[in-house]
Amino acid sequence: MAYAMQFLLLLASAATIAPANSAPSWLPNFWIKMMGTRLDIPFVYEEATIAGIQEAFDGGRLTSVQLVKYYLDQINSVNPSLHAVQEVNPDALSDAARCDSQRATITGAASRRSPLHGIPILIKDNINTRDRLNTTSGSFALLGSVVRGDAAVIDRLRRAGAILLGKATMSEWDHFRALSPPQGWSPRGGQGKSPYPGTVNPCGTSSGSAIAVAANIVTVALGTDLDGAITCPSTTNSVVGIKPTVGVTSRSGVVPISNRLDTVGPMARTVADAVAVLDVIAGFDPRDSSATRAGEKYIPAGGFRRFLKADGLKGKRIGILSRRFDDFEEKSAEAAIFARFFDIMRNKGATVINDLEIRGVEQMSDPAASGEAAELLAEFKVSLEAYLADLISSPVRTLADIIAFNNHHKEEERTEEFGQIIFLESEKTKGVGPLEKSAINRMVRLSKEGMEMLMAEKGLDALVFPNNVIHHALAIGGFPLISVPAGYAESGAPFGITFAGAVGSDAKLIEIAYAFEQATRARKPPPPPPLS
Ligand SMILES: *[C@@H]1O[C@H](CO)[C@@H](O)[C@H](O)[C@H]1NC(C)=O
């Protein structure tokens, strides 16, 4: 979870533009393609898109091995300062070589290959991979644990031919151990750092995934989200993040906080790339059957990619949570950018409805008052211990074991400095009982009366707000969210814009976010990092 726990406990106790980058912009497309294939114009790795990479594969200008080597070089040079990658997959190069030979032997296969075939992807460290990579949620306590198999989403990625480049750093235990560790910090990964100047912390908890994509260390990445853990680091590091409706992607084989609210989603430099990943990872999983059976019906036949439409804003009704933009009011540069964005939405055929607010948003953002705090503490222990029990072998099997581990490894885990108050509070709980169930029901009711009624009353297709300012209020309903880069403050710090929709409206949100991105194209790669 992003940072809701901070006050929670305090109170409770780009489409294919890559080839164009490689040649002067006055060259017509046709000649760029001709030169690319005939004259061997070097492939431009920076800001490469999946479509651009696949085109270069097909044109014989690039191999997966070359691509992986480029990213490994990037990791060597910038990761010592950014701390985005925790482990590199020792099999990444041989997996890439296998993809290259598959591509060479299957003739006319371009249309039959998955768009992710031969594409390197970085995996958040709380997602199980049954290979030489460890899965530890950033903690030394899980180092050496052996997972039963790949997480369902990893299984799908491997079958599509994606190359697991490694594990991304994250906020340890999804920032659910204590209040004070900085976001993006973990004992195993160190302190993740945004590649952009002016950013104090990279936001969490899928911090390494966002940093790596932003800094061109990898093509795409996987994150997980409960209440902003994908969208916050995405907006902070100027990448696209999709938090799908809970149940669209399976959570089996993921270190959990809450089986009710956790979700897995893609992070990428463009909406199209994020959607390419989503199309592969989405779907029914017997090991997460009740959630994914519900989620399955939101996945369109032919995939979400069918909704990458340049005119996707046409006819949409978009509600602006105006008060949420007030913080930007004083910063006239940002305010002007958002005002221009709303004009663009109108010009592209959307109806923009101003001055909306979600009923009960303050209550929902106050988990102590709502009972959500106590509920999550109870749910965490149950969910985590079920995960630990399922490991083939593990140095820890219970939350109490992890607490003891932290007490015995004060130095690595910085236990004295940060403590483990959330763990200790969670350890006191006794399962999800009537009290917790009534808290859940109350939250669900608030969520229905808030977000859902507003959407219905105003006939909205999406709500829009800056960064991810109402992440907690939107977590409860399992709503889908998409964050898109919006611009940069004077300091250089990125800011983003987030679209939220009703449960199951993922496809519609993709239409809106893609059309918005095509019309604005706000993302810029970060400046090269200072040499460490
Ligand atoms: C996994 O952890 C073990 C134990 O620390 C280490 O030896 C191994 O190199 C790690 N795997 C990778 C791929 O880094």
From TrEMBL:
Q: What's the domain of life for this entry? A: Eukaryota
Q: InterPro entries attached here?
A: Amidase_dom, AS_sf
Q: Which Pfam families match?
A: Amidase
Gene3D superfamilies named in the record: Amidase signature (AS) domain
Looking at the record, the residues that make up the Amidase domain are 67-467
Keywords on record: Signal
Q: Where is the signal peptide?
A: 1-22
Can you name this protein? Amidase 1
